[in-house]
Amino acid sequence: MSPVCWLLLGLLGLVAIAIVVRLRSGYGPPQLTDALMNHREQAIVAAFANAFFPPGGPIPMSGTEAGVTGYLDDYLKRSAPLQRLLIRLLLRYLELEPFVFGPRASRFSKLSHAEQLASLESTGTSSIYFRRVSFISLRALMTMAYLANEEVARAIRMTQSADPFSLGDRVFEQLPTNRSKEHP
What global pTM score does this model have? Predict the structure, then answer.
């Protein structure tokens, strides 16, 4: 190989290293100690939590104030290893998705709040099925974690009920007692 090829390969290697360092830096210190999630994952969850439930929003508590990061860390600890891996991959994918789909080539956690909302809107309404499913999965995780906070539940007057539609035993009374006669 000629010296020019070696020089180009060396420059390409330096650019690749710079990109990796840039992607991995800037997440700040961890919010939680003794957590399963590392500091990057914690920052990603905090960014999504505040995008869905911003400070000063209609509910007086932001996503991070409601403890979404801690709840999801505990959820991951209780999850099976494969489920834990899939949730972590979902977070990483959605963090890096703006590089491909916009609104600009940056990590989700580095976007402004308006850009984060635009990114979530684009993901949730995409014609690509995988993007929509990833959005719905993230929204379910964020909502589950946010509504687990007692102050949030009180603010929206949410109550726990094992029978939310007041059906009681009426549902079971309508079921046939011996299904084998009806369905051979």
Answer: 0.75
